[in-house]
Amino acid sequence: MTEKKSLKVSVYGPMVFLILGLSTIIFPLYMTVMIAFKQPSEMTNSISGILSLPKTWSLSNFREAMVVTDFWRSLGNSLLITAVTVALSLALHSLMGYALGRNKAHSKFYSFVYLFIVSGMFVPFAILMMPLAKQTAELHLANWAGVIILYVVFYMPMNILLYSGYLVNIPIALEEAARVDGASTWTTYWKIIFPIMKPMHATVAVLTALAVWNDVMTPLVIMAGSGKNTLPLAQLNFQSQFGTNYNLAFASYLLSLIPILIFYVICQKQILNGVVNGAVK
Amino acid sequence: MSDMELFIDGILVYYNVFIKERRRENAMKRKTITFLKLALCGMMTSFAVTGCGSSADTGKTEIEIVQYKPEAANYFATVEEEFNATHDDIHLTISSPNDAMTILRTRFIREDYPDIIGIGGDINYSYFVDADILSDVSDYPGLQNIKQAYIDIDEALEFVPKDGTFAVPYVANAAGVLYNRDMFQEHGWEIPETWEELNALCDAIQAEGILPFYFGFKDTWTCLAPWNAMAVDLSPSDTTKQVNRGQTTFSAEYRELSERYLSLLQYGPKDPFAYNYNDACTAFARGESAMYPIGSYAVPQILSVNPDLNVDSFVMPASDTKDGNTLNSGIDLQFCVTADCPNKEAAYEVLDFLLADENLQKYIDAQNAVPCKEGAFKLAPMLDGMSEYIAAGNMTDYQDHYYPSEMAVDAQLQTFLLNKDVDAFLTKFDTDWLRYNRDIIRMVQEYEKEHGSTGAQ
Amino acid sequence: MKNDRQRTFLMITIPILALFICFNTIPLIRGVIYSFTNFKGFGSYSWVGIRNYIDLFSDGRVGKSYLFTFKLAIVTTIVVNVLSLVLALALNSKIRAKSFFRGAYFLPNILGALVVGYIFNYFFTYILPAVAEMMGMNSTSILSDPKSAWIGIVVVCAWQAIAMNTIIYISGLQTVPEDVYEAGGLDGATGWKQFKYLTFPLIIPFFSINMVLCVKNFLMVFDQIMALTKGGPAQSTESVSYLIYNNGMSGGQFGFQSANAVVFFILIVCVSVAQMKFANSKEEQL
Prior knowledge:
Chain A contains 15 helices and two strands. Chain A is mainly alpha-helical and 281 residues long. Chain A has two domains: 58 residues; 221 residues, MetI-like (MetI-like fold, Orthogonal Bundle).
């Protein structure tokens, strides 16, 4: 009897908690959607006014937002930059995380490199901004390729922290077994370690993609004057000090939210289907 | 080949050696390496493309304008199109980015100067003149048609007098008090012309149960609007310069101004620091207050909420006499040719086109602006109450165009309005001023020593 | 064999490290050089020695911003870690509509700063005071009072950050093998006991990652400040990053704020290294 009760609590407890927490998300989202459908003349400062449904459900805001941001082209630029950055991050950061994570405990050199890179996370971007603007221009990198290289460097500290943290829970015995079979370290990494870090790849992919997708400053500073826009850069068009068209802006933000949300849903399945449980014995 | 390409090439070679060494190993690995190689190659090609092949040689002179008013982007897009359609020898590009100041600064640091920049007549202009980024345009014939008052404003903005003219003023804006014309007519209220009349009017409005003013002090910059509009009436236009020369203090010049500003609070909403600019615009548009002390730039935002609102403006009457009042007006947009511009003739041709009466009129219509050029232009109806001052040229520049932005005078004003302590505010203003401007003050004093002049601007 | 392993590790480390130095360390050094000048961000500049650093320690505004930033970071880190750990446990338990919940809780993280700023401004300015009034309480906006505005920032920071920390905790929970629970269940460890003695020790690496990331993110808080208060009211919510960006990039204090950034950087590194050392010693105990 008691066992059944505790089972019930452990199933319904989290559910109740999650549903309660959900209201803090549904409410702002509701407001966002309502504003995205309304016209500027429907905006008021009264509570009933802001919560009311729009007079007409027209997609005109979305259509206009797509025109103003040159949606498809900006989306293409954003997708390209995000995809290449994520792919490079998964390849390079996981390798580096592996090299550092496996050695930092017993080697002074690796432990120093680890701290050196991780501390790069704390450099305020404002201090790098001017020198980077200059440096990328000198290297002919004032374009999307430069932005990608910078992203790979910027998110390296966080991702290395994540990867090497994950490695702590992956027994070194796995690699030793492979080594006994005659495989080199390089092969072992790609055949055994890389696949086993799948949940962490998904996590890194989500976090990196999200940060890149929403970032304004780097493309603003680096690509200024190149005539290319990312989606967040194009969205800056909606706001100025003396007037912001919130309705168009909200419609545009809702549009740009969709790709990253889909990406997240795909990735979170990978986080779930981690193979570690089966492999770690 | 740039350093970067060499560097990437190095990595590639490095990985190639790596591959050869381990050729016997399985395909999985090779796939990954190929991927890396592809990615790096992709990057390399893109350097090559953007590095050397960017300037398509069409034989035309390229002129690029970066202007800082994104709200006027549509106007400038039309101008760009019309200009290019009518000119065979010059190709014009105008960009109106948001956050143009950041973009300009980063482009300056990489020495990638646009030919013409469109900026406001504020302290950034002073910095740019001081940094020798702008070129002297005193040989530009179009300057003859610009109102002298605005050329003087630009001259006054230079930290120390410099030979030459560095900007062509385009349009100005005006700040005072916006009011709901229909509401005023309905109640028979008159436009006030002295400080006393303004207070009487506010009392009358309050007696009817209507809120006289709306404030959006949550956005600190809006604290500057009434401040500027009153400052031109109550303190000398060159207060900051006098302080820099050590002739006076803000405690002396700004006391009356601070006290009068504080007394306006009683006519505003209960908690003005809760509302931002957008809230205040919406509230005024919805008739929640009779007046809103802000510049003409707020009108488009207000009309977007309520297109039927009948809005007009009047000059802030902070002085005790009508003659003591002056319109608070500064250069909102002016064009500067950069020192780096290779073809000034072409740049002047572009300026001619921008300053052509029909184009300028289009800008005025779109942005409710005040032209800096002489001539019979039609002004927006919401400037009716100010037209007398505009026609007479009775205008004085914004005081905040002389404040360094890092001193955050707007935030200090907000603090002052919250704490209501005039002495503390003015003392801090004086000490902060000396701290944030010490390099400029030193420059001014060195100049004074050299030239011995004290009175000249 | 051992040799091959070491060589492979070096082959991996050196080029990536070179890339990092090229685009992080070198620009940083250049930035540090600016901190000894009165550079405005453009034009000419001159050397001022350590004047910027001396000024830094006598500037009341800078001092205030450090206090505010640390207060905010500590409070928000605690709030976020407690909530996201609970959330991760809930999302990792056997519930229905798991994908839906995970997707929904991820949303706050992707809404842009403009949207978040607008919605929460509205919430704090109009909705919350109205609710307070109905309950007969003081009905002013918490963002308009210098004493309480920071709470608003904590709420928004936490609301946005919980998603990311939850993801990291969830991926951590995935490394806990099922059989640990099975074995624990036999010993009678359930609920809180199971969490304290079985789950938590195994996810300590993820706990320390989250702590480091949280402290870092909240010490460098910028977007939320811009969206909510822009440093006001009465300069009570100016974070260090806000000052560095606003006065250094938009204002003419580039040199001075570079000095501020250098000091701030050193400070955060110290805090984080201390954190990691502490976490490492905890990990080793287990």
